[in-house]
């Protein structure tokens, strides 16, 4: 069940699964961990954008799109959501508990790594 923490909406695993299953929803889920963490295990179809890259790619984000951030435990993703809110993005959500609490499908290896503002701007749910 969602709740707010420091002004950021928090969702649990069931809510994230719902978002991922609803193809018509324009919410973009982004993993903000480091590449080695992502390649060890990540949610299929969720792209990687390491936390330290976000300030450099801020122009690629759309203020009208809702973003859900995922990390290992929910702390880094919470910090990313707070940073985004401070920069005028108000449709940001944190997956509380992170991959440590994820009980859904995972995959290993490289999949999608966002490297540029163009890639980020063109990112759409599949």
Structure keywords:
5-stranded mixed sheet, 5 strands, alpha/beta, Oxidized Rhodanese, domain 1, 4 helices, 126 residues
Describe this protein's structure.
Keywords: Transferase. This is Rhodanese-related sulfurtransferase. InterPro entries: GlpE_sulfurtransferase, Rhodanese-like_dom, Rhodanese-like_dom_sf. The structure is a single chain. Helix 3 (75-86) links the parallel strand 4 (67-70) and strand 5. The longest helix has 12 residues, at 75-86. The protein has a five-stranded mixed β-sheet with strand order 1-2-5-4-3. The mean pLDDT is 92. It contains four helices and five strands. The protein is α/β, with parallel strands linked by helices. It has a single domain (3-119), classed as Rhodanese-like domain (Oxidized Rhodanese, domain 1, 3-Layer(aba) Sandwich), CATH 3.40.250.10.
């Amino acid at each position: 069940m969602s709740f707010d923490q420091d002004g950021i909406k928090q969702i649990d695993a069931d809510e994230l699964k719902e978002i991922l299953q609803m193809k018509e929803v324009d919410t973009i889920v982004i993993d903000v961990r480091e590449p080695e963490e992502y390649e060890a295990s990540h949610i299929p179809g969720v792209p990687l954008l390491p936390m330290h890259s976000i300030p450099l790619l801020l122009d690629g984000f759309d203020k009208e799109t809702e973003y859900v951030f995922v990390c290992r435990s929910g702390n880094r993703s919470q910090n990313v959501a707070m940073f985004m809110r401070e920069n005028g993005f108000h449709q940001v959500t944190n997956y509380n508990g992170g991959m440590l609490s994820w009980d859904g499908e995972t995959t290993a290896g490289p999949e999608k790594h966002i490297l540029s503002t163009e890639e980020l701007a063109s990112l759409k749910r599949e």
